Amino acid sequence: MSRIKTLQDLFRRYRRPGDFVIAFLSFAFALFLAACLPFQITWVEGTALFAQPAFWPSVAIALMLVFSTLHMIGALVSERIPGRLAEVVQWIKAIEYGLWFMAYVFLVPVLGYLPATILFTVSLTFRLGYRGWKWSVMAALFAVVVVVLFKTFLHVKIPAGAAYDLLPAGSIRSFLLTYL
């Protein structure tokens, strides 16, 4: 194997799996930003060009359009390496964890921080394939430690869930509202 490369070898481009999809999404996003730009910026009379509030966003989006166009052209003319569908499927699988987090975010105001965190950690542990009762107990203990750490020691202010309103008034309810 030769360690010496020609100039053409250094600049040869191969289209990796998923490269065209990313190039297209980048180009589409740049077009979207360019279409929205006139409604989001203002040009101020009597101000130098570089001091204009609209100048740098316009430059950034224009460059984004140029480079995403070059990326898409490069993806179209490059030799294709198979495997694009498998790459896109991996991206879609990764979105699942964002959806798990969004469900958790929506559950916290309803159930409360502690119950939602316990439900989230135990469910996600089960989803990841750890199905024994020991794993569920460890996930629940982890959730309790996280809640106690954030609410008690770090004093993070997280609103109580609507479910806490169903508890009877008294010291237990105020303790739960304050610390859990």
Automatic annotation (TrEMBL):
A Pfam family hit: TctB
Superkingdom of origin: Bacteria
Keywords (A to Z) from UniProt: Membrane, Transmembrane, Transmembrane helix
Transmembrane intervals: 20-43, 55-77, 97-120, 132-150
Domain DUF1468 positions: 27-159
The protein, known as: Tripartite tricarboxylate transporter TctB family protein
Organism phylogeny: Bacteria, Pseudomonadati, Pseudomonadota, Alphaproteobacteria, Rhodobacterales
